[in-house]
Write a structure and sequence with these properties.
This protein is an alpha/beta fold and 397 residues long. The protein contains 15 helices and 15 strands. The protein has two domains: 26-142 and 278-348, Rossmann fold (3-Layer(aba) Sandwich), CATH 3.40.50; 145-272 and 355-379, 3-Layer(aba) Sandwich (Rossmann fold), CATH 3.40.50.2300. The strands form four sheets. It has a six-stranded mixed beta sheet with strand order 2-3-1-4-5-6, with helices on both faces. This is ABC transporter permease.
Length: 397
């Protein structure tokens, strides 16, 4: 009788536990909220995801949508520990943003193991939908290939045919240097050298001296966030631009331009997947975000809005949050929102959309707050990104 009673209690516990685990849709924002990339994505990406959930109505399939966030501090081991707990204990259904390529690659592998969806926005490496692709992984907003095509291709065609790279010393920097180098050489240019720079460096002097002595026409900054702004500031002190070399911010966003100010950033050429003043839809998103936060979003924050919204649309279309069914819908549905119009998701998880080549305005050209960019060219998505077959993703073979 005692055994029967214990069995009944255990069965009741399971019955009670099962619905609790299944209830609600839970989305996690895992990114850098206190370090070198805190302005690049950070709490602003959290707000963008919150905005997408509100725009969707706050629930899906009759279930409440919950948002959880954490700071991975740019440490893959910490990020993996958080994500594992989210997946195993807290029933998180999808993780997004994932700034920092080393972190994104680690979570990509964990998501594959757990059969959970991740949508990378903040990390850049094209490997995420290339040799490291997996069935439950997606990549939104941009990647190193698209940045290379936009900025690298444009500057080389304009006569910047010799390059020296200051490269962030981890997966993102290597991928950005590699992808840009391939575009440079394909357009008749030459890479004359490069130097690896530790993440979150405060002193770029020795690296900039090497770039200066290379005599390269273009100094490619294969870094991001505070590393980019600090290297630009110190390059000015060394007179690199004044002496005739040109800086290329290979991953630079509106957040870094705002941090530098137009006086320091004017004339820089860069590529983004979103700018608030490109069209009516981008303006709608930008102005609503500005009202909430006091700032315009960059492509990471706007991309997080789009990734969150697209996931929720896929759950609704699938009629379930089962990952396999949602993956299928994510790859079927067009991406048409205030971030991207006419976007599509390839078999390897790459979301393809137009990219934009900009030049930062002079202070005298800016007519209002956040009026920072002149549009030089629109790069069609099918030109900016690898096709699924070109990517090297094993899923496409």
């Amino acid at each position: 009788m005692k055994s029967a009673l214990l069995a009944a209690v255990a069965t009741s516990a399971l019955v009670l536990a099962a619905p609790a685990a299944a209830q609600g849709v839970k989305i996690g924002i895992l990114n850098d909220q206190s370090g070198v990339y805190a302005d690049y994505g950070g709490k602003w990406s959290v707000e963008a995801a919150r905005m997408a959930i509100e725009d969707f109505g706050g629930e899906v399939l009759g279930q409440k949508i919950e948002l959880v966030t954490a700071d991975h501090q740019n440490k893959p081991d910490l990020a993996t520990s958080i994500a594992r707990r989210w997946y195993d204990v807290e029933n998180v259904d999808m993780i997004t943003e994932l700034t920092t390529s080393s972190v994104a690659l680690a979570i990509h592998e964990l998501s594959k193991e757990k059969k959970k969806i991740d949508i990378v926005v903040g990390a850049a490496t094209s490997r995420l939908t290339g040799d490291a692709c997996q069935p439950y992984g997606f990549h939104w907003a941009y990647d190193t290939r698209a940045l290379g095509v936009g900025t690298g291709g444009a500057l080389t065609k304009a006569g910047g045919d010799t390059w020296f790279f200051l490269t962030a010393d981890y997966a993102f920097g290597y991928a950005l240097e590699k992808d840009t180098s391939e575009i440079v050489t394909a357009n008749g240019g030459k890479v004359v050298g490069s130097v690896r720079v530790p993440l979150n460096s405060s002193d770029f002097s020795s690296f900039l001296l090497q770039a200066q002595s290379s005599k390269a026409k273009i100094v490619g900054l294969a870094n991001a966030g505070l590393d980019t702004t600090n290297s630009i500031k110190q390059a000015s002190e060394f007179g690199i631009v004044a002496s005739g070399q040109k800086l290329a911010g290979l991953l630079m966003t509106l957040a870094e331009v705002n941090g530098l100010g137009l006086q320091a950033a004017q004339g820089l050429v860069l590529t983004e997947g979103y700018y608030w003043d490109v069209n009516d839809k981008s303006r709608n998103l930008g102005e609503r975000f500005l009202k909430r936060t006091g700032r315009m979003p960059n492509m990471i924050q706007a991309g997080t809005y789009s990734a969150t919204l697209s996931y929720l649309k896929a759950v609704k279309a699938a009629g379930t949050k089962d990952p396999d069914a949602v993956v299928k819908k994510l790859k079927e549905l067009p991406v048409d929102d205030d971030f991207a119009q006419g976007g599509k998701v390839l078999e390897n998880g790459r979301m393809v959309h137009d990219m934009y080549l900009f030049e930062v305005k002079k202070p005298s050209e800016s007519k209002k707050p956040w009026d920072y960019y002149k549009l030089l060219a629109t790069v069609p998505g099918d030109k900016a990104f690898f096709t699924a077959k070109e990517s090297g993703c094993p899923l496409t073979k």
